[in-house]
Fold this sequence. Notes:
6-stranded parallel sheet, 23 strands
Amino acid sequence: MIVIEDLCDGLENTPENNKAVYLEKFHLSETSIAKRLKTLIKKSKSIREIDADKAVPWVQEKLDITLADKQVEAVKRACRSKVMVLTGQPGTGKTTIINSILKIFKALGVNILLAAPTGRAAKRMSEATGYEAKTIHRLLEYSPKKAGFQKNDEYPLNCDLLIVDEFSMVDCVLMHHLLKAIPSHATFIMVGDVNQLPSVGAGNVLNDVISSGAVPVVELNEIFRQAQQSSIIMNAHKINAGIVPSFKPAEGELDDFYFIQREEPEEVLQVILELLKDRIPNRFGFDPIDDIQVLTPMHKGTVGAGNLNAELQNELNPSGDDVTRWGRSFRVRDKVMQIKNNYDKEVFNGDIGRVSKIDQESQELTISFDGREVDYDFADLDEVVLAYAVSVHKAQGSQYPVVVIPVHTQHYALLQRNLIYTGITRGRKLVVMVGTRRALSIAVKNNKTQKRYTRLTQRLIGSRAKPK
């Protein structure tokens, strides 16, 4: 079923026919988000009034840190606001602010919940804060057997403060269900980098909320001294500003960011194979399977995820027990990724593991996810793919010690600034790009991302639309 809306005259980006057409679930989600967010903002919070001017020096002393001006503003906003957005690029101190907020609110004895869209992002949040963080689906107690989220407006979350990280990944349907479950008295903080790729699902929630001006937004923009020593972070900021970075030569003093020029896709593929098998392990000491992740803009082509996985499997794990299902071949020791949420097995879309056992007699394959063994019937292997190489979209919310990225005009349709920016910011210690400077230049200069037609911004600022 579809919903058609008449649009108000004079609004920006109004279609020529003056109509907006929605699938019903997206219209319901978008209108619900606007209504519930406005209600959440207006309601009184359960947390007693915090003297922000006293809280800032207190938390700096407790954590033995000195906050920059924007960071001080962010902490004060969190103390005073019911709902807020914290955004900023890598190296600007978002994690420091989260930890400062947690320290202040924990001292008040309030109930705190942390969440992120993916399992890997939730794990990183837990490691960075020392607090348990859950996926949003787990937080909302999603049950496939009961066909939906068990947490909602009738059975809300038990919290006074909710912080959700990697918010650029949250689509409009998930935001709708999340807001349904947030109690009206709770303080809600959205944290994310608006320059990354938008959510895979429909909507552009973080960007729309920021654009609306409906809630306070603090954008951290100062790169701190330690981060300035990282070429990964400095080049990420350049790329986001539309500047094609320069690179140090591969020889000589070690750096954390390299570009290797190769013209033909076959040459790019060969260099990637050499990097993972020999060059990076020998020079930097990283494990080729556990530490290095190849990220590619698309699935097809010589340097697409499909062909890269087949070639890397043969290079890094050439023999052993194997099974072929759904056109995919799996071997013991293979690096694999779960591509569907499986609540019975407690493995989720984007989780990466290693094949630890294949039992041909019982028709079962076992995958180790961070040391936890999970069994799969051969018939269920459509939920798993090889993960030596994955798409940049699949890597959102994750970080890896080393990232290798092919950049070639073979991927012309996906050479976009936010895709390259998202890819390189997945690397913590080393990023290597392989391809042509022309392709990189095209991507960095292409800031015309595919437009997402939403009316959430207008709804949040009070624009009226009449459904038919």
